[in-house]
Amino acid sequence: MPNPEAIPTLGDVAKMAGVSSATVSRCLNAPDRVVEATRQRVQEAIEALGYTPNFAARVMAAKSTMTIGAIIPTMENAIFARGVQAFQEELHRQGYTLLVASSAYRPDIENEQIRALVARGADGLLLIGHDREAEIYDYLARQKVPALAAWSHSEAGQIPSIGFDNAQAMFSLTQEVIKLGHTKIAMISGVTQGNDRARLRLQGCRDAMEANGLDAAKLPVIEAAYEIEHGAAAFAKLMARSPRPSVVMCGNDVLATGALLCAQRLGLAVPEDVSITGFDDIELARVTNPALTTVHVPHREMGGKAALELVDMVKNKSPGRSAKLPTHITWRQSLGPVGDPVGGPVVGPVAGPVGDSARPASEAS
Amino acid sequence: MPNPEAIPTLGDVAKMAGVSSATVSRCLNAPDRVVEATRQRVQEAIEALGYTPNFAARVMAAKSTMTIGAIIPTMENAIFARGVQAFQEELHRQGYTLLVASSAYRPDIENEQIRALVARGADGLLLIGHDREAEIYDYLARQKVPALAAWSHSEAGQIPSIGFDNAQAMFSLTQEVIKLGHTKIAMISGVTQGNDRARLRLQGCRDAMEANGLDAAKLPVIEAAYEIEHGAAAFAKLMARSPRPSVVMCGNDVLATGALLCAQRLGLAVPEDVSITGFDDIELARVTNPALTTVHVPHREMGGKAALELVDMVKNKSPGRSAKLPTHITWRQSLGPVGDPVGGPVVGPVAGPVGDSARPASEAS
DNA sequence: CACATCAATGTAAGCGCTTACATTATCAAT
DNA sequence: ATTGATAATGTAAGCGCTTACATTGATGTG
Fold first, then answer.
1. In what side-by-side order are the strands of the sheet with B328-331?
2. Quick one: pLDDT at residue A357?
3. For residue A341, what pLDDT band results from cuts at 50, 70 and 90?
4. CATH of domain A10-61
5. Residue B3 pLDDT greater than 60, yes or no
6. Distance CA B258, CA B331 (A)
7. Nucleotides of strand C lying closer than 7 angstroms to a protein CB
């Protein structure tokens, strides 16, 4: 009997069961390659000893961890929550474990986390967006760790991506805004530095303006980190401008929620005095008052698809195929026609008592 | 020159730099034990080769990963987001990497994830609450992996905990509810099975009723998973009862938000027709209309403290000390006096335009 | 100048597992 | 019984790193 204080090893089990360590290993990894009686004896020894395999050793010897890593910019708000949850569920179904790290939107930390996850043996990585130093892609390539980008679709990226067209989606939404008569548009954008999603959304908005004969260069833009209070502060600044914008398009629902809260504080009615739009369609968007008209992103579908694709890349050494998922506008109450008289009817289709609705016609991408 | 296709190892670096592998290892782990000139030569070789240490090998040899694991019930909503973020920030400051896994509130998955993280070499684990099979605590003890519980304080737990007194907090809130004249209380509780936080919150509510001469056995309780729609469904059922409750206390802010949404659908004014309370004080609670009166939990403080304590346990093999953090009630607009006439003034203190306020007097625990 | 001292480096033994290959047992067919 | 094929198990060589211990060489001392 080995020292009961020590953690038992394969060898201890083998000794106790009276077999070789190879046989024990086989019991664990290929049970059908060992005869019933032996397997049982080994099983008993395992239980008696309370043995659990040492993972590091297994990894060293076998070079596969059945672990996928994901580095997301933040866990603080729900932007990535649903997608990651779906990703994890599909991974679990495929027999993989997901480990998540977050970068606080800081490239240096993301870098660190990527290395940490790779070092810890992640068989594959899920990254958000495409913007990062070339060095990291080199590193991943050298380490032969497949990576997949999500939340942003681009055929031009260094790695395949499962996502949607951020620019296109924002283009469509802006189109609708303009159709409602707005010309004094302003935008609260996410921080575009190192964030292709934010940059593309801004771009989409500008493109739609130009496409409709508005001068995109004159679009007032404030960049704000994705926090409610920052959205509120930016909104306050925008409202102080003259002429006052009739609509504030926000880089995501968190910023839009902040804007809404600020409008409330300022005594501005939404959408009568000013319209506000979001992006992402997270839970928050349904809950605010008025509820947010926003771009719906197929979070769960994206997560699930990304999992399948990444597993394929890992298992079959496939190069990975990108996919572009459709988004659509979810109409709620925060966007109305310009100059709507106070209390006037909300235009834009509304369904049901706390109505969400999607106009098939306004399908983006 | 070794095969350029292969991932370089310590040995490759050593060969290139013309030193032994031990020296290279020392350059990495104890730079001051090797002379400047050598160190530089090694550094160059490392860069030329693009070498990165193999973590599994390092773990096997050194038995420390500078990694902490956390298993949280869910990432889908923000209940744990802020706390975990703070936990991670402090960990990062201490030189540790945090890896997060989620269990979807399922004990079997939590079990799996705990093993996965331990197997992958986590030096310590953060768990939520105390409710889990004894077997897991045994496993942790055998593997000598220190674990700390959060979001729930209990001196009686198998592992130390950094948290707050869920029962006490709910007791205080219920006390206030009763003080406002409510006797027809109902509760939408989280699923209490395997969730000590939910159970204690329910208990706290019952205790306060008894303490005020109300029959806790008559408290209508519906258990619901922490999702907005489930909260809404439970609320609808509660509202169909006769007599109709004058206040619905919810196990957390997510459920309360669902309740609020449902009230809106039913055309019930909150708090005039029915009051609603939350728990946790996550962002959601500030954003709903009316905003939620809820129990404020010191998420960031809890996360930071937990990180410090867990690092101490890991580094110094300390047994760990528990800590109970104070909570307080955050007063907003969803709780009012019973039978308030429609449109009547909101009682209960309110501060500022979108006022949050905490009454020092109602400090819980 | 011989020798002790100490800093810098090298040697080599693991860490716990997987797996290619070698060996032995089993059993049906002759 | 003998043989050959095949199934079951054992042997042992790594996987890439850390580290106790051994070796070397420089420096200072009596």
1. B294-296, B328-331, B357-358
2. 54
3. very low
4. 1.10.260.40
5. no
6. 19
7. 7-12, 14-20
CB contact under 8 A, A120 and B65: yes
Say if A65-164+299-324 and A166-298+327-362 have the same CATH topology.
yes
A111 vs B207, residue with greater confidence: B207
Query: pLDDT-derived band of residue A118, with 50, 70 and 90 as boundaries?
Result: confident
H helical segments located in B246-327: 253-266, 284-287, 299-316
Instruction: Name the closest residue (CA) to the C1' of nucleotide C9.
Output: B23
pTM for the whole structure: 0.85
Task: Provide the token pair at A50.
Answer: 């309370």
Asked whether residue A346 carries a pLDDT value surpassing 60, the answer given is no
Coil, strand or helix at B70: strand
pLDDT confidence of residue B343: 40
CATH class (in words) of the domain with range A65-164+299-324: alpha beta
Q: Strands (DSSP E) along chain B, which ranges? A: 67-72, 97-102, 124-128, 147-150, 161-163, 185-189, 221-223, 247-250, 275-277, 294-296, 323-324, 328-331, 357-358
Residue A17's identity, in one-letter code, is A
Instruction: Return the domain boundaries, chain B.
Output: 10-54, 62-164+299-324, 166-297+327-362
**Gap from B33 CA to D18 C1', Å:** 14
B95 dihedral zone (left: phi>0; alpha: psi -120 to 50; beta): left
Residue A167: closest CA among A330, A279, A302, A322? A279
Residues of chain B contacting residue A283, judged by C-beta atoms under 8 Å apart = 77, 228, 284
- Mutation site, B5, B266, B289, interface A, largest A CB count within 10 A: B289
Give strand letter and number of the nucleotide nearest A14 (CA to C1').
Answer: D10
Q: Which residues 44-63 of chain B have a CB under 7 Å from nucleic chain C? A: 57, 60-61
Least reliable range by pLDDT among A8-22, A58-72, A314-328: A58-72
**Highest mean predicted confidence (pLDDT) among A21-35, A281-295, B94-108:** A281-295
| Range A166-298+327-362 has CATH code 3.40.50.2300 | yes
Half-sphere exposure of B38 (CA within 13 A, CB side): 18
pLDDT of residue B357: 54
Half-sphere exposure at residue A294, Cβ-oriented, CA atoms within 13 angstroms: 27
Give the mean pLDDT of chain A: 89
- Joined together, the tokens standing for residue B204 give 């706290």
* CATH number, domain B166-297+327-362: 3.40.50.2300
CA distances (Å), B281 to each of B4, B198, B233, B331, B362, in order? Answer: 55, 15, 22, 10, 15
Give the model's confidence band at A80: pLDDT under 50 very low, under 70 low, under 90 confident, else very high: very high
Query: CA of A263: how far to CAs of A239, A290, B143, in Å?
Result: 9, 11, 55
Q: What is the pLDDT of residue A84?
A: 94
For residue B169, pLDDT beyond 50: yes
| Residue whose Cα is closest to the C1' of D14 | A61
Determine the length of chain A: 365
Q: Given a cut of 50, is residue B346 above it in pLDDT? A: no
Q: Can you identify the CATH homologous superfamily of domain B62-164+299-324?
A: Response regulator (3.40.50.2300)
CATH of B10-54, one of 3.30.470.10, 3.40.50.10860, 1.10.260.40, 1.20.1250.20: 1.10.260.40
Residue A74 pLDDT more than 50? yes
- CA-CA-CA-CA dihedral for A323, A324, A328, A334, to nearest 10: 100
* Mean pLDDT rounded to a whole number for chain B: 89
- What is the reported pLDDT for B31? 87
Per the CB < 8 A criterion, the answer to whether B20 and B38 are in contact is no
Chain A residues with beta carbon closer than 8 angstroms to that of B265:
353-354
pLDDT (0 to 100) of residue A355: 47
